[in-house]
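Obj: model holo form, ligand = FE2/S2 (inorganic) cluster.
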Amino acid sequence: MPQVKFFVNGKQRTVSADPNTPLLWVLRESLGLTGTKYGCGQGLCGACTVHVNGEATRSCVTTLDLAEGKRVVTIEGLASNVQNPLLRAWIAEEVSQCGYCQPGQILSAAALLARKPNPSDSEIDEAMAANLCRCGTYPRIRRAIHRTTQEGGRR
Ligand code: FES
Ligand code: FES
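Output (holo structure tokens):
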């Protein structure tokens, strides 16, 4: 099997696998990072969202070879900083219901805030539209993103 090297949550990892393997399975099965969820497997629901070089990326439709040499961040990496203002806002707004979609929601929200530090409601809705939530947590997600920008301004 060919070896693919890339960075996951700041650490270099080397994986021996078919380069066409979806990144989602490499993260979950090879690296044990099960915070990233499988939903549709077709790039349609956002449950599998991670960051690849800072971009929100659907890991179910991203093959391992596309991650070669890149920086991947999963929910485990983001959550390693308990002071992360986005996570604190998520908890304060009690966003999560069943929780299944939430890692992908948080990674998409983090990517939005990195490129747009104070997004409007419509910018939030547009950026988060492809992350589906069967529990309907959308209003709380929007509040948590606004809260992050407010808390960030106070620090
Ligand atoms: S599982 Fe990847 S977008 Fe649905
Ligand atoms: S919190 Fe249940 S699917 Fe989103």
